[in-house]
Design brief:
single chain; mainly alpha
Length: 90
């Protein structure tokens, strides 16, 4: 039993998250919440579009730190798309 624990302990790298990783993770959660709220408040003037833009901006640091470039492109697309939406509907 003790040998199994030592074997599994060798498989896991023990490291602490950096400040950037912790901060970007928290911002990512906040951004996700804004994006999740967006569809429900889209009919209330510009509030839904602003929610999408803020959510995209807050989610971007997390995916940049994780080097998930496809999601960076999605977030930039959301930000640009809803800015165009706001400009056209103002």
């Amino acid at each position: 039993m003790v040998k199994d624990k030592k074997f599994f302990k060798k498989l896991v790298k023990d490291r602490r998250l950096t400040v950037n990783e912790r901060l970007s993770g928290r911002l990512g959660y906040m951004g996700t919440a804004f994006i999740m709220i967006g569809p429900y408040i889209l009919n209330y003037g510009n509030l839904g579009a602003i929610s999408y833009i803020v959510g995209g901006i807050l989610c971007t640091p997390q995916v940049v730190v994780a080097k998930q470039w496809n999601l960076v492109a999605v977030n930039v697309n959301v930000i640009i798309g809803y800015m165009i939406y706001l400009i056209n509907n103002s």
